[in-house]
Design goal:
The protein folds into 2 domains: about 150 residues, Medium-chain alcohol dehydrogenases, catalytic domain (Quinone Oxidoreductase, Chain A, domain 1, Alpha-Beta Complex); about 140 residues, Rossmann fold (3-Layer(aba) Sandwich). α1 crosses α9, α2 crosses α3 and α2 crosses α7. Strands 3, 5, 6, 7, 8, 15 and 16 form a 7-stranded mixed beta sheet that branches. It has a 6-stranded parallel beta sheet with strand order 11-10-9-12-13-14, sandwiched between helices. The protein has a 3-stranded antiparallel beta sheet with strand order 2-1-4, with no helix packed on it. With about 350 residues, it is α/β, with parallel strands linked by helices. The protein is globular, with a radius of gyration of 20 Å. The two termini are about 20 Å apart. Helices cover about 25% and strands about 25% of the residues. The structure holds NADP nicotinamide-adenine-dinucleotide phosphate (NAP). NADP nicotinamide-adenine-dinucleotide phosphate (NAP) binds next to α1, α2 and α3.
Length: about 350
């Protein structure tokens, strides 16, 4: 089997040192070591994947690299008791698509510690409609719950609301009964966000204060922030006493202009979220929820699918903040691995 070629989306440097990304075929024995070989049915497009397509050194730690932090499919070979051939599984994060060849490929081989059995209630496609973005949104919601931000506590803001993480966060929070205020830079996304359950849709300026006041009037019970910078600062300064802001992204800015006052005078919690290294027990808990009571009713509106050979054009869109919702990448149904030698 190792002589077979599999299709994958590879980023590498050309002889001139320029980063090149292309759909190609590589022998299976070039896959990195691991306990479990998975035939991938679906992957997805995340912001991080789009950076990887450009070979961004903050994401891609070594070249050549197959892009894709997410993968869902079927176990075809396993060296461990925990998984057997035929098991439906999913993998998100860890080093997938970062130091370890990723999910935009017909196969991934990964350590068993990265593999989550597909929870009953989710198809492989649905699991990738959610993907890392879904797990991230769920971690943010969990952080709010853990800090006692409840549905009756008051309005909860979601920024970057029309993006992947934002869309799932709006859907989850509203399904759980929260009063959701969606912040978007896309006026055309208003109806979409209302359909997902946002009570109010506001422009970014509504939560952007650059006046420099250490505290602002108290408005929000909590927030899920995917953008960072002045907006995250504004949210922290305008959250009510003992509220919580879950921060997971930097789509606008990696900096955080802030003083300590929201923390020491209002008891605000800034809860950091890192889905990639989410511990396995929490992953299991959240994937079970996402497959059950938290499964977004509007998943079909949030996500649409593209083929592996179409995904690069959308990578530029996501970096420009223009993509709405999620893109699931269909890998199965592409032509199957072939016997033969490496192709360019
Ligand atoms: N920490 C983690 O574990 C984790 C996991 C997944 C993603 N992330 C991060 O979370 C962020 C969102 O990821 P994603 O996959 O949801 O990306 P995405 O689909 O591109 O969503 C990002 C959204 O942010 C908004 N936005 C873009 N540029 C902006 C700007 N300059 N100012 C304000 N808002 C802006 C846009 O929404 P509107 O047009 O609706 O405003 C955009 O759709 C990224 O920074 C990503 O790296 C982190």
């Amino acid at each position: 089997m190792d002589a077979e070629l599999f299709r994958c989306y590879l980023v590498d440097k050309d002889p001139q040192g320029n980063v090149r990304a292309e759909l190609t075929r590589r022998p299976l024995d070039e896959l990195p070591g691991g306990d479990v070989l998975i035939r991938v049915d679906y992957s997805s497009l995340n912001y991080k994947d789009a950076l990887a397509v450009r070979g961004h050194p903050g994401v891609v730690k070594r070249l050549p690299m197959v892009v894709g932090v997410d993968a869902a499919g079927t176990v075809v070979e396993s060296g461990v008791y925990e998984f057997v051939e035929g098991d439906p599984v999913l993998v998100t994060g860890f080093d997938l698509g970062v130091t370890h060849w990723g999910g935009w490929a017909q196969y991934v081989r990964v350590p068993q510690q990265w593999v989550v059995p597909m929870p009953p209630g989710l198809t492989p496609k649905e699991s990738m409609m959610l993907g890392t973005a879904g797990l991230t949104a769920a971690l943010c919601v969990r952080a709010l719950q853990e800090h006692d931000v409840k549905p009756g506590s008051g309005p909860v803001v979601v920024t970057g609301a029309s993006g992947g993480v934002g869309s799932v966060a709006v859907a989850l929070l509203s399904q759980l009964g929260y009063d959701v205020v969606a912040v978007t830079g896309k006026p055309a996304a208003r109806n979409y966000l209302q359909q997902l359950g946002a009570r109010q849709v506001v422009p970014r300026q509504a939560v952007t204060d650059t006046g420099g006041k250490p505290l602002l009037s108290r408005q929000w019970a909590g927030a899920v922030d995917t953008v960072g910078g002045d907006i995250l600062s504004t949210l922290l300064r305008s959250t009510r006493h003992f509220g919580c802001v879950a921060a997971c992204g930097n789509a606008a800015d990696a900096r955080l202009p802030i003083t300590v006052y929201p923390f020491i005078l209002r008891g605000i919690t800034l809860a950091g979220v890192d889905a990639a290294m989410c511990p396995m027990p929490v992953r299991h808990e959240l994937w079970q929820k996402l497959a059950g009571p938290w499964k977004p009713k509007h998943l079909a509106q949030i996500a649409r699918s593209v083929q592996l050979d179409e995904v690069q054009q959308h990578a530029e869109q996501i970096l420009a903040g223009q993509l709405r919702g999620r893109l699931v990448v269909r890998v199965a149904g592409e032509d199957q691995p072939q016997k033969g030698h490496e192709a360019g």
